[in-house]
From TrEMBL:
One of its GO terms (biological process) is DNA integration. It comes from Microthlaspi erraticum. SUPFAM superfamilies: Ribonuclease H-like. PROSITE patterns: INTEGRASE. Residues 1-119 form the Integrase catalytic domain. This is Integrase catalytic domain-containing protein. Signal peptide: none annotated. PANTHER family: RNA-DIRECTED DNA POLYMERASE, TRANSPOSASE, PUTATIVE-RELATED. It holds the Pfam family SH3_retrovirus. GO terms for molecular function: nucleic acid binding.
Amino acid sequence: MAFARFIAQIIRLRAHFPDYAIKKVRLDNAGEFTSAAFNDFCMSVGIDVEHPVPHVHTQNGMAESLIKRLQLIARPLILRTKLPITVWGHAILHAGALVQVRPSAYNKFSPIQLAFGNMPNISHLRVFGCAVYIPIAPPQRSKMGPQRRLGIYVGYSSPSIIRYLEPATGDMFTARFADSHFDENEFPALGGGSRESPNDITKWCTHSLAYLDPPSNQREVEVQKIIHMQRLANQLPMSSDTKRVTKSYIPAANAPSKIEVPHEHFDVNRASEPVQLKRGRL
């Protein structure tokens, strides 16, 4: 399957970019990419195949970086919806489509704009996992019955064709974009049910604790005291810097010269034991 898709991708690239021939490809050590049939095909079209050392991902850093970028985009797409993790394949495909039409930190133009020279059309983009209402085919509807059915939007095949999931069965179907009605504030779940999309992403899993410590003048004073003590502590010399330490012969004003030992907590046997000094102390 991967071999067939790779050949189809090579044929598509050679048809779209005839002036730029594919000279070399770097692939992993999967069985479909190390077979004799695959090597014979690449040799026949003049493509050199490179295989990195097994379990050394740094030799394929560009592909690994792209995979990580797709994961960072696909993960919040799934978490925003009420879909299971098993839809990660649709999320990855949708993330790949988003990468193609959005600029990066290294270039102000999108990959599609750099490849074709035209600004991409993003009017067909919708929120992943939102509700979409698809027209029911004429043989399956009646004049007085429902005219549309609910679906879950999971991406698009082209600007005019979308992909959606059937909530009851989880099967994927395609529909015409112009005939679909989207509700980007509703996120259906597989098997039924829906939930409203939160407006603020910071409130998803965060519960307020302000009622435990309401703002007051006393709290602000305590905070300023802590900041002042921290500033004084930062100005003190380190324990290892003995040159800056000065011994004072002035006794403390509030320190008593003798501490009364309570008799109920005094242990005679323990008092007779020799005192163990700390290491480095005399």
